[in-house]
Amino acid sequence: MRTLLIGGALAALVVALSACGGSDSVDSELQRQVDLHAISQIEKDFHESMSKKDLDQMMSMWTENATMTGGAGFTATGKAEIRKFWAAAPPFQRENKWVSDHPAYKLRATVNGDRGTLFFECHFVDAATRKVELVTAIDADVQRIDGRWLITSTVGSAATLAP
Fold first, then answer.
1. pTM value surpassing 0.70
2. Would you kindly state where each structural domain of the chain is located, as residue ranges?
3. Angle, helix 24-52 to helix 2-18, in steps of 10 degrees
4. Tell me, what's the pLDDT at 25?
């Protein structure tokens, strides 16, 4: 439903801006909005991949030479190391029946040409008990490569349940 609403809003924006005569500023604002939508889609796919325990979907969002940094000085470099990390991570363990959720209002995305940033929180909720099991945050650099936005680096951190 959320995708339908966002897609509809984006379509309305395209129609509205098209009626303005197609100036360069309108075209660049439209491109910026399209890029921000594509960047924010990474967050949606990220959470979906963990909820479904779909490691291939998770890895489809990363560049070959991406880096991922986490607590205690941990860094994974390249898709093979990042995949190994996620394969062992609690959200991907079959015994954990977790749903990966996020407060949408905390999502922040920027775009500057073919590069951008993305910040979001992950709230992992046990589906049976409805207990929050883990809360983390991701701060990512993203890049458009061959027309597709991908994660080039992330820094993970703890997050708190606060507005």
1. yes
2. 2-158
3. 170
4. 76
